Amino acid sequence: MKPPKIEVADPFRKEIDSFHALAPLLLPEQVNTERLRGIDEYEDYVMLTYSLAKPLGITKMMDDMEDLMGLNILYYLRPFSGLHSEGHQCCAYATPTCGQMYKFNAQTRKDGLVHTLYVYIFTSLEIMLECLKDDLLAHEGKGVFQTKMTYPRLIADFM
User: Do residues 111 and 55 touch, judged by C-beta distance below 8 A?
Assistant: First the structure.
């Protein structure tokens, strides 16, 4: 399946094309170029928004990101009230030393399923590391971490 023509600045074009060449093969349920709903371009990264054809549970989402794509789970956060299926969040990222600089974010809706996947693609190791650290910090106190990578372990992936 050929990705749609996407107009973005040159620094991101190569990274998006590289991502679209691999990710749909490894995560066809999550990263389907035909279900790309938006591209938000920022100075230091680009965010791709995918709607899932079939919503997934957050555990399945994390398992696939880890097992099929080889991503590292940065965190899995559940709401303080564990009775609610809405608001479970996760973040996973590619080990940047392998030449892949992206992170995935997902959150459940009221039905307890993930409907949308956000993929951030970076062109700088420093920006990616800061973004991951900021993501962890932004979620402190917002729920209960079921999984949370330590800062030393995170930083080690960037060495």
Answer: yes
